[in-house]
Each structure stands twice: as C-alpha cells, then as structure tokens.
Amino acid sequence: MLWEHLDLDAGKLRIVQQLLKPGAAPEFGPTKTGRPRTVALAEETIRLLRAHRAQQRELRMKNRTTYRDFGLVFAKQWDDLQRAGDMIGFPLQINNLGQRQYAQLIKAAEVRPIKFHGLRHTCVTLLLQAGTPVHVVSERLGHSKITMTLEVYAHVLPDMQKDAALTLGALLHG
Predict the structure, then answer these.
(1) What's the structural domain count of the chain?
(2) Which bin fits 11, alpha (ψ -120 to 50), beta or left (φ > 0)?
(3) Could you give the CA distance from residue 159 to residue 130 in angstroms, rounded to a whole number?
(4) Residues 61 and 87 in one domain
C-alpha cells in the first residue's frame, strides 16, 4: 500500500495494486481481481495512520542516506532487517508480518492465535454479524461477485436470520 493511495482527509484507501516481488527493486502488479477498489476508513484508523506517517517521516529523516523510500505505508524498520542487503524502507514481506510483528501483537493482546489471513475472515464475520449489507462487505473484500462472499461466509448467515426474525417481530408487534 502506497501513501499516494491513501486520502486521510477523506478517510479513504484506494486499493489498486499488490506487491509481487519484494526487495531492492520491488515489483507491483494489479490486484487479484484486476479491479481497483476504494474502502472507507474509521476515524481511529485515520488517527493511527497519521501517527504512523509522522513516525515513518522521522525515521526517514534520521536515516536519509540509508532509507530506501518507495512511498510504502508499511516498510521495513531497523528491527525488520534480517537478511544481507535488507534496508529500511524496503517492503515488508508477509512472513515478516506473520512471524514477527503479528505474533508480537497476538501475544500482547493475549488472544487465541489465528493465521494472519484469519484476520480477513474475522473482519468479515464481525461486519456481517453487525448487520453490514453483504454487498458492502463484498466490495471491501474485492470479490468480483457477491455470490463468492455469500458462499465463503454462509456460516455467518444463519445467526443473522434469527436476528432478522427478532427485528421484524419487534417492528410488526411492537
């Protein structure tokens, strides 16, 4: 994700590409579906991103000669340098997220560990259980068809049927 794809004033993130190859000459390509999408960001997320950007700018300024700036929102910092040739500013690799930062967050939060990709499923489940329309959730995921979202997350929908019955009953019968 590049800073140029974030509009913090409008609270929106445009997802237009994915990292294909990390390293000194990172390569980016289209999203899995080939279609860009825009998702809205929560106010707290925007606040955290602003703080992160300030911290990243400070790191970049302190390390002008060694920081490789690719415009990445999340880039390697000193703690992430594991291999010869790594430099601060390089793209984070998924195994770095999964094995180091993510594992530390799980431990600090004292929650049951799940795989990094499980965060996506947790997010979708929470949104659907909170009553977010399926087409909105599908758009956020980047699914090309709403049926894909319905098929993958059908296990969440039976509970929603019960909630819908209770809501309708309250509306009709006070």
Answers:
(1) 2
(2) left
(3) 11
(4) yes
Judged against a pLDDT cut of 70, whether residue 98 lies above it is answered with no
pTM: 0.77
pLDDT band at 118 (very low <50, low <70, confident <90, very high): confident
Q: Compute and round to an integer the Cα radius of gyration of the chain.
A: 20
What pairs with residue 13 in β-bridges?
Answer: 6, 39
Which residues share a beta bridge with 50? none
Q: What tokens were used for 173? A: 């019968």
21 CB contacts (<8 Å, ≥6 apart)? 27
Q: Do 146 and 76 fall into the same domain?
A: no
- Is the domain of 60 the same as that of 129? no
29-41: b (≥16 Cβ within 10 Å) or e:
eeeeeeeeeeeeb
